[in-house]
Write a structure and sequence with these properties.
The chain is an alpha/beta fold. The chain is built from four helices and three strands.
Length: about 100
């Protein structure tokens, strides 16, 4: 929910919680689109190292480019299989090479 996102951002800013290593955001999520959440996270200095992976059923160069502009490290088009998502997260974290 929007309230939960804002509460988490405030807690991050105040140092009450550690920033996440990876944040999965659906572009079309209700109440607050993933683009807006990404923008808020990137504006928060505490979240500078957080990897953002955008998810969307609307694949295309515009969505991919806008995600990159907002600081996303990856974009995954839906539908996808869980193992593929896990692999992309592991690659983003440097735990796995893309060619494995």
């Amino acid at each position: 929910s929007l309230a939960a996102v804002l509460q988490a951002l405030a807690a991050l800013k105040n140092g009450e919680i550690a920033p996440p290593r990876v944040l999965l955001l659906d572009i079309g999520q209700p109440q607050m689109p993933g683009y807006d959440v990404a923008r808020l996270f990137r504006a928060n200095p505490a979240c500078g190292e957080t990897l953002i992976i955008m998810l969307s059923g609307r694949d295309g160069v515009v969505n991919r480019a806008y995600s990159k502009l907002l600081g996303a490290s990856d974009f995954i088009a839906k539908p996808f299989k869980s193992p593929a998502l896990v692999k992309r997260i592991r690659i983003a974290l440097g735990l796995e090479w893309p060619l494995d």
